[in-house]
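Still learning. Show one?

>
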Amino acid sequence: MAKAEWVTDALPGLSADDVSNVLHQLDELEVEEESDLCMVEEDLVGILKAIQARKVIAAWKKQTVPVKIVNAEPQSQAIESGNKVSDSSHAVSIVRSPIPPNLSRRSSSWVQTFKIPWEEMPENLIALCESKKRPKPSMRREMVRKIITAVCQVTKTPGKKKTDRIAETVVNKYPASFRDQVVMPLWQSSF
């Protein structure tokens, strides 16, 4: 099945431009096989209307993947019947299996149970935070790198709202160290 058919099967009636844009995004994501589609998450939201992107992603996730190749034998002509698919040189028997639980889309509640890896942070950063002092930018960047590494172990695409929630947790734990500080008053009377 061609990549364009993956898109048009999931959302018939999509314009040729939208199909082309989705195919370009799939190339950017390095989607090479139909079984890779179950890993696409919120990557199409900027390309399609939000509801279209959700429909396409839901259709791809409903497909029973990954695909396991059971038998490959040389053939002289192309076969495309039943569950046999081939090009001009091979016949491939495909067995579809359900998506394993660890590959299914993670629940959005991961952020509620996410633990910031404070034990991995440098001791001097923690000491500054506990003494209510602001850490240097290099220390803050190191902290962010460690947090993002931990987030990436949970999900590849956390989303802005979820990362904002994690940042809020950090600020709430050490407000004197991480809360934005406004030096001048926001409103002054001009009368």
